[in-house]
Amino acid sequence: MQDNSNKYFAFISYSHKDIEWAKWLSGKLEKYTVPRNVLPETLKNELLVSKKRLFPVFRDQDELPTSADLSNAIVEALRTSNCLLVICSPNATQSQWVNEEIRQYKAMGRTSRILAVLVSGEPNTDGEKECFPPALRYEVTADGKITDQRVEPLAADLRAATAPKDKKAHDTLDKEFLRIAAGVWGVGFDTLFQREYRRRMRQLKQRVFITAVSIIALLRNL
Predict the structure, then answer these.
(1) Which domains does the chain have, with CATH numbers?
(2) Which of 50, 156, 159, 169 could, after both became Cys, cross-link 179 (CB 3.0–4.6 A)?
(3) Are 131 and 88 in contact (CB under 8 A)?
């Protein structure tokens, strides 16, 4: 039986100091169209699969309340999200709420559906440059306890870029975004990368053909 409980493709967890990265990631995901015939292996929600677009994505746009617990709306969004994307930076390690969102998601038994998105800092250094929050670095029990057993999360590395619109790191951003999209859609990175490459080659050939036809038509009218 298909599991139709998920409402969102992804929940983006981030420190509000990294909001530009969160905006970039949510915008890129929601505009991305999955290449035809690339069927997900792990995404079981029929409604989401039928869309062929990675929309919707949950990104909290307001500061979380100062209470000790996540709001019911945030917990429900976590519960109904197919995967959790964590914007990882030293800012994230200092955020109580990023750590709590990871802890809650892992306690739901979804550790394998978490992808770290590195934007700055260094993972697993336990110092001021540490970019993995504690709940991401360690296993979490079903009752929500963070253990002392280390884990290595799946990760996409955007640290070559200084900002989401860093033109010098365009190729890295494109490649790592596809790694994220593959994780969200539920396919292997190589599968999506190769299909995306072929799609772009077809689009390039079409543009070249249209340009050539336009030039020929212009020359004939001279």
Answers:
(1) 10-189 (3.40.50)
(2) 156
(3) yes
